[in-house]
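Q: Could you fold this chain for me?
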Amino acid sequence: MGINQIKAFLLDIFFPKICLNCQREGDYLCPDCLSTLEILNFHQKHSTRNLTDLYFALPYQNINTKRLIQKFKYQPFIRELAKTLASLIIAHFQLSDNGENFSDFTLIPVPLGKKRLRWRGFNQAEEIGKKLSLYFKMPLLRGALIKIKETQPQVELAAEARKENLNGVFSVKNKEAIANKKIILVDDVYTTGSTMEECARILKKARAKEIIGIVVARAKPEEDYFQNAN
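A: Sure. Below is the predicted structure, expressed as structure tokens.
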């Protein structure tokens, strides 16, 4: 047994995973509570000015979906939830069975600002991207797209203010790594689309060939407020 397996074994003994909904021991979402999630078994085409398409696993309205994402993003942070959330995206692709071929794409996580990254200790989009990279067998490119200016959290803003909040926020650090690439942008929740659209716009300026978005859930405006999950 390797060192990582030993660590995982000890953590399971002393800090067992508890279902975030019913508190049953075993996993962060037990099979019964998992069955309440409405994982989409079809693909809803969604293109924007800079995105060719958007894939999302489920709507954000379900209380268990909200709990999972918000325990991942807000204190006390559960970093391990990246595996659970990525598995929901993977389940969506398996259920819809549209035969998507992403073999020539590169994954890029939506970046965090330095202040937010220090507070959380990890970039939630990058953690999900790591799991998707293994499943889809495609590279995960970190550090090419960066956030150069701190912003107010998007969940605190209305739709129009979200767009203004992102002006001049993102930049491409390594244009050679982006040029002529097909890119999948990874994030947790897609609401108004302002963040992903601005990231895609900057990547297009760096001559990205095509950009697709992948998220865990799609929310309607004002559904992604933290207090809505209480």
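A (continued): The chain has two domains: 1-36, 38-229.
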